Amino acid sequence: MEKIRQYMSNFQMAVSTVPINKIRRFIELLLEAHKDERQIFVLGNGGSASTASHFACDLSKGTICRNRKRLKVISLTDSVALMTAWANDSSYEDIFKEQLENLLNPGDVVIGISASGNSKNVLNAIEYARSIGCLTLGFAGFGGGQLAEMVDECIVVNSYEYGPVEDVHLMLEHIISYCIAEELAAGQRAERVSKGTRERVGATRRVGSTATIDKGRISHG
To answer: What is the pLDDT of residue 189?
Structure first.
């Protein structure tokens, strides 16, 4: 029981120190990418690979609004064949960078997830993304490591334990995906209200014009 309480306490402490303004900044940057129709790539190793895949799924599907453009999100952890081909024929350190060379355009967004902040293949991918003018974001723990120093924006979980760091990373992707979905839906609702208002104003003007014409006909009769 004590071990359970200790783990939960460590997790709660890690969550309590996550900077809200950093989360908000991530949301803003991803919404801007959506507006500009830029691609978003997510990557990581081990548990972070699962989070990258989960993040891409939630951003791709969970944010859809009917009849509106969708986020363009790709997880680089999902093709076992491609990752192992690059690992076998080149280097495991380049399994993400090599994929990006096929797909990445200047201005796209690359999100690197690394608990330690020092995963070499993540750092290589970020370095390549920066070299061609992409926006780079990161999730890290353990003080941030090299990742926090390389990316444009990084959320560093204040913990030196893999479990709580990875737990918080998953929580962060849920928060970010949820907030983006809510903002896109709110924007769609606002557009509907604005459209409805314009239609009502237009109809009122048309009715008013007809009444004026009819009145003119009567007065000239």
So the answer is: 73
Task: Tell me which amino acid residue 125 is.
Answer: A
135: in domain:
yes
Domain count for the chain = 1
Distance CA 111, CA 51 (A): 11
CATH number at residue 77: 3.40.50.10490
Under 8 Å CB-to-CB from 65, ≥6 apart: which residues?
184, 185, 187, 188
Q: Does a structural domain hold residue 89?
A: yes
Q: Which residues contact 178 (CB under 8 A, 6 or more apart)?
A: 62
- Contact between residue 43 and residue 111 where contact means Cβ atoms under 8 Å apart: yes
Whole-structure pTM value: 0.86
CB atoms within 10 A of CB 194: 10
- Is 217 within the bounds of a domain? no
Q: Tell me whether residue 159 is in a domain.
A: yes
The packing angle between helices 162-220 and 2-16, to 10°, is: 50
Q: Which residues contact residue 193 at a Cβ distance below 8 angstroms, ignoring those fewer than 6 apart?
A: none
| Domain assignment of residue 85, given as a range | 2-189
Mean pLDDT by 10 residues, the chain (221 residues): 95 96 98 98 98 98 93 98 98 98 98 98 98 98 98 98 98 98 86 61 62 54 48
The Cα 90–Cα 94 span in angstroms is 7
Integer-rounded Cα Rg, in Å, for the chain is 24
